[in-house]
Amino acid sequence: MDFTLYSEYFIIINCLILLFSLIIDMIIGDPHFKNHPVMHIGNLINWLKTKLRTGKSKLDKILGILLLILVILIFCIPIYLFQVIIWWFWNIWTISDWVIPNLINLLTFSALMGFVLKWTFAVKNLGDVSLPIGEALKQHNLEKARTELSLIVRRETKELEKKHILSATVECIAESTTDSVTSVFWFYLMGNLLGIIIFTFFHKNFLWLFLGIPSAYIFRIINTADSIVGYKDLENINIGWFSAKMDDFSNYIPTRLTVLFMLFAGKILKYNVKNACIVLKSNKKKTESVNAGWTMSTMAGLLNVQLEKIGHYKLGIPTRILEPYDIKSAYKLFQLTVILFIFVLSAITFIIIFILLLY
After folding, report:
1. What is the pLDDT of residue 96?
2. Tally of helices (H runs) and strands (E runs) in the chain
3. 10 Å Cβ neighbour count for 108?
4. How far is CA 56 from CA 44, 238, 244, 336, in A?
């Protein structure tokens, strides 16, 4: 099985995969249906939890490690093999020196892999679920806003007042910048870079070049596991301990890079970058999560508002009260941050890969 062409077209293919995944997300968003890959991931995590949990703290911590590893293997191995098999079929139909048929095959492969990658992130969907909350509040419909909010946050929403509904929504957008998008692309790019490094310096096997998409799914599985079992209640504190720690670890670098791009996006949109830097420095450690406080504090500072989770934290300086339009402003900032992150990080990563491929 000859994969030489994959290394020759590696940068083009993976740039196209990124592009197609974003286009597909823009077109279809993140529809909620029973065969959504993340729903299957969540169902498997829940099923394994019921089978593995014993109620014994030390044993459950060990079994929590097994739980996460099993889910990663069950999903990522088929995804990896799917890429290899599809490329093999593409390679069969590659005709030497025939430009147009080969271009069609290349685009078809990249589009299909873009579709596979798309299910690991959600850009359009975040607007679909958050913007209606602002519209409901504009119409003074608190009940509808609370109901819509309950679909995207963990906290209880039934008694929340307008300012706390707004705060929770803006917080969700800020935290989702990493959880829903930038961390996925960080893992995708680092998976590709890792594959090239191994291929170039350690083991000249073309199968290493297919690590990008499985790496993105590894993050999505870790993040999903954290959202299901990463709690400190009696039921999950041990079985979910490893998932919670891995989520903190996997988000650590992407979160800090995301904040830099969020500040840059804020500068472009003429938000209060100076205030954001002040709030970030003083408030980033106020949240229980080692990562969430970074993006939420930055968002609060850029918008000149205070974000509050009752009984947990207050982030930002209350220069003004939150208004429904702040949800739209936060989402606009989220979109530009994502675009800048993907464009700049992809350019840097693929330049490094290009240099490595020259060896």
Report:
1. 54
2. 14, 2
3. 13
4. 22, 8, 18, 46
